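User: Working on a comparison across species. This one is Phage infection protein from Paenibacillus apis. Can you predict its structure so I can line it up against the others?
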Amino acid sequence: MKILTQKMMWLGLALVLIVLTVFGVAMMGSVVGSKPKELPVALVVLDQPAELPTGGTFAVGEMIREKLVSDPAMPFVWHIVDSEEKAREGLDKHEYYGAMVIPADLSSGLLSLATHSPIHPNVKIISNEGMNTQASMVIRQAMGQAMKMISGELLQQLLGQIGQQTEQIPIETATALMTPITVQEEVVHPPGVNNASGNAPGLLIQIMWIGSLVTGIMLFLASRKAVAAGSRRWAVSALQAIVGLATAGIASGFTVWMASSWYGMELANARETWLFLWLAGSAFFLLQSSLLNWIGFRAMPLLVLLMFFSMPLLNMAPEFLSQTTRVWIYSWTPLQFAAGGLREVMYFGGLDVVGSNAFVLWGVVVGFLILLLASGFKAGRAATDAPPTSVTGD
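Assistant: Here's the predicted structure for Phage infection protein from Paenibacillus apis:
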């Protein structure tokens, strides 16, 4: 049993536990137990109060607004909007994960249920599925459950109002009262067919990160051999950047073609998806290659950890994450900006609607391109400034 006395065995066991801990935190710590909180949602209250036969007013819209806004169990931040058009503009600009629209005839329609010509008012629940599928599902479920509870309360109020006028309720009135409010659900910016339930942007970005990393490693090794063979370092760095950017364009095009042809992914605009993936792949390649050129293969643990810490977050709404994760990882990881921008391109209208995410990626491209080119001059100076060696004979 001499193996039990070997330090290497215990060192290996400790290393395994450290690796499992690090990657466990990376893959599970940020997402396990995540809960939605403070999801921005638009609320449009158009309801006009109706006059009761017994006097007074019946203002259902205001009652619904107060109940929704004051309910601490709702994981929403309500933004009161004065028109459905403005709410839809906010959805198009991915400012809201969803919206509820209370119609102008809600109060009068509910009172009409006691008449011979009942009108069932429709309350709209609009979910912005392209922004985040998980958040969209939470909105539909939470709003739908809230409207069921409110409908039950309204039924009691309506029965009380009708009871003041008559002791007997006609069959058609009782039938109408079973569903006093009709909830109409609508989805805007839906992902296309075979889009991994709206998670396609995150998947494509992960593929591009890995492809760019392989490209960066291969070109880094090739550049070292070229320098060893006598090529000028600055010229090798420049050629390394040119070849890497061209490869990123080819790789992004192949990825788009593979996703649509092999797996049937529906793309609203394949060309613009390819162009943005090219931008993302270029940013990834330049970042990775700059670190490799400056600090060598010691950069690999940083790049691998960055990938594993970022991957679980790409398809999650930031409102689902803890404050620590949002500040220390989500707020700065380049993969998040790439996935967010690609989501805008794929689900919100193409390159014309890409906002700050594209500017961040362009900043990464320009900044790390300068660093990559500068690495050639730094290496050249290091070689020039090295102290000369003298050979002396005996």
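For your comparison, note: The beta strands are 39-45, 50-51, 57-58, 76-81, 98-102, 122-128, 182-188.

User: Helpful, thanks.
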